[in-house]
Amino acid sequence: MQERGDGGAREASGRRARGQLESDVLAALWAADGPLTAGQVREALPGDLAYTTVLTILSRLYDKKMLVRHREGRGYAYAPVRDEASHTAQRMRSLLDGGSDREAVLARFVSELSEQDEHVLHQLLTGHDARTGDDRPTEGA
Amino acid sequence: MLISVYVPFAVTAVLAVLAPRLAHVLPPRRAAWALACAALVTAIGWAGALSLLAFTGVAQIPEVAERGRWSVSALQAEDPVSLVVAAGSALVLAAGVVSLGLAAGKQARLLVQARRERARLPQESELVVLDDDAPTAFALPGSPGRIVVSRGMLRRLTDREREALLAHERAHLRCRHHLFQILWRLTAALNPLLRPLAVAGGFVLERWADEEAAQRVGDRKIVAHAVGRAALASAGASIPAALAATGGAVPQRVRALLAPPPPRRTLPLVAGGLLLAACCASLVNAASDSDQMVDSAQCAAYAATATAPSVGEHRREPDFCFED
Fold first, then answer.
1. Structural domain containing residue B160
2. How many Å lie between the alpha carbon of A44 and the closest alpha carbon of chain B?
3. Which residue of chain A has the CA closest to B238?
4. Within 10 Å of residue B294's Cβ, how many Cβ atoms?
5. Chain segment A109-122, per-residue pLDDT in tens
6. pLDDT tens string A38-52
7. β-strand B137-140 against B146-150: which pairing, if any?
8. Relative to the CA of A101, which of B45, B79, B181, B308 has its CA 20 to 30 Å away?
9. Residue range A13-80 in CATH 1.10.10.10
C-alpha cells in the first residue's frame, strides 16, 4: 500500500517558495526547547524536504544573522537570535491595541473568547461530541 | 418611480437579515464573495435611491428650477414623493456620506500605519517572530505582506498546528482579505443596515483562511486544534474586559472544522443574485422615471414661456418636447 492519497496536499511542498521554507524553518527553531540540528529541523517540518534543502535554508538564515549556531558532532545546531530587548514586540502590540477597527487591516489568528466560549472550546478539543447548542457537560454519557 | 425607488431599501433590509445566515451555510470562499457583492450593490442602490428621492425635493427649490429651466408647478403636479420624504432622504444621505468619509479616512490612516510598521520590521523575511511569551499571531498586509507571530504562540503549538497557523495567515495575505474587510467597513459606514454583513464577513474570512489551511495541511482536525489551542492560550494570557463578551466566533470555527466541509450550494447564491439584480433594475427604472419627470417639467416651462410675451432672451426648445 502506497501513501499516494496524501500526495494532493503534499505535492506543492516541493515547489514551495523559498520565503515560505525560511518561515517554516524559523518557526520550528523558535518553537523548539533548545538548538536543533539540520536533521531535527527536517523532522519538525511538514512534507519530505531533502536534507540538503534544510541545510541550505539554515545557512541562509544564519547569513542573515537571524540564527546562531554551535558545533554539535559533525555538524551544527541552530537557534534563533533572541531579541527580547527590541522594541518591535512593543510596537506590534500597540498596533493591535486599537479596537475593532484594526481588525480590518490586521488579520488576527484568533479573536478573544468569552468565558462560555472557553468552556465550549475545552469540550470540543477534548473529544466531546461537537453537538451544536450543547453547552452543558453531560453526565455519564 | 412610485415603487421602484423604494426597492433598493427593501433589498437592503432583506439582505441585512438573510445574508449573515446564508453566509454560514455556504463554503466560506463563495460566501465572502457573495457578501462582498451584496454589500457593494446594496450600498450603491441605497445611495442611488436616496439621491433620487432627495433630488425630487431639491428640484422644487425655485432657484434650482430656474437654473434647470423646468417648471416647479409641473414637477409638483407629477411628483409622487412628499417633501418630508425628500428632505429625510437628503439628511440620511448626507449623514451616510459624512460617515463614509470618516471611515475611509480612518482605514487609510490604519493602512499607512501598518505599512510604516512593516517597513520598520528588522528582518526582510515573510515571518517575523516577536520574542515575547504572550501568544499573538496576525498578518500584516502589504506587498509583500508579513506574518507576525510571537514566540509564546509558536511554543504552544505542535509541529503540524504551527504549519496550520502559517497556512492560515498566508491565506489571509494571498487572498487580500483586508480589502474585503475594508469594503464591508466602508459600506457599513455609509449604511448602518449593512453592519450585519460586515460582521458575517469578518467571520467568513476566518473560515476561508481555515479551509485553505486545512487543504494545505491535509487534515481539518489539526487546523481545528490549532485554532482552539491558540485561542485558549491567548485567553489565558489576557482577556480585555471590553471584548470578552463578543466572542463566539472561535468555537464556531472549531466546530466547522471538526465537521465535514460545507457542501457547495447554488440556490442561496442564485436567490441573492436575483435580489441584487432586482435592486439594480429598479434603481435604473427609478432613475429613468425621474429623468422623464424632469423632461416633462422642462417642456411645461418652455410651453409657459412660449405663450408669454417675449422675455428678450431666446430660449431653445427642448428637443424632446411635443414628440408624441
1. 4-239+247-306
2. 6
3. A112
4. 20
5. 777 777 788 888 88
6. 999 999 998 888 999
7. antiparallel
8. B45
9. yes
